[in-house]
Design goal:
This protein is α/β, with parallel strands linked by helices and 208 residues long. It is 45% helix and 12% strand. The chain has 10 helices and 5 strands; from the N terminus they run βαββαβαβααααααα.
Length: 208
């Protein structure tokens, strides 16, 4: 069984992402619980790579040989792919391990809004209108101001960690992938069968 370790840059990802990765159907692969690293999002590439070093070593000691660094792009000018490549080239990875960088475009909330069905499953918490849905579908979640949108549709105030857990408890990885190219990249790096060969285009899931 191949183990994949994930290093994340936010508490929402640290607390909520396992709810999603546990639903991934993978062959002979286990995505273990993520580790949190305080990664400064606008720091130079070398600083970001250094901030991941102790967590990479920790995963290696646990027998993990495939390590994914998950980072927010935020408002950086670089495209997600170029930024991921630059940071990946700066990583120091133990012998026998491989390191990957996946950049969320632009942040974790863009992945959260990508599954509109999951948001609709909590109508007392999220008021999802057709106009909201139209901004995301098809394939537009990465270009949205996702945090602002979530704040606008959430009853009372949006709580990053708690609401992330509510959304991902109902989310489907393949539905997220339909509307977020950066999430499809994560699935490809993990080795999901639907995105083993490419992540540029979504694989449509059957309507239930």
């Amino acid at each position: 069984m191949k183990k994949i370790g994930v290093i994340v840059d936010g508490q929402s990802e640290y607390r909520a992402l396992p709810l999603l990765t546990s639903r991934l159907v993978l062959t002979q692969t286990q995505v273990i619980s993520p580790l949190y690293a305080p990664i400064p999002p606008y720091a130079p590439v070398g600083v970001i790579a250094h901030a991941c070093r102790s967590r990479i070593e920790q995963l290696a000691r646990r027998g993990v040989r495939e390590i994914i660094i998950l980072l927010d792009r935020e408002k950086r000018a670089e495209c997600a792919g170029d930024l991921a490549t630059a940071i990946g080239n700066a990583l120091v990875v133990p012998v026998g391990c491989r390191g990957w960088v996946v950049v969320k475009d632009r942040m974790f909330e863009n992945w959260l809004i990508a599954d509109v069905t999951a948001l609709k499953s909590s109508p007392q918490r999220f008021n999802i209108s057709p106009a909201f849905e139209h901004k995301i579908i098809p394939g537009k979640a990465d270009s949205c101001d996702a945090l602002r949108m979530l704040k606008e549709v959430t009853s009372h105030s949006y709580l990053k960690v708690q609401d992330s857990k509510i959304i991902l408890a109902a989310a489907d990885p393949l539905r997220i992938a339909e509307n977020s190219r950066s999430f499809r990249r994560l699935l490809r790096v993990i080795g999901h069968e639907s995105y083993r060969d490419q992540s540029a285009r979504p694989v449509r899931t059957p309507t239930k």
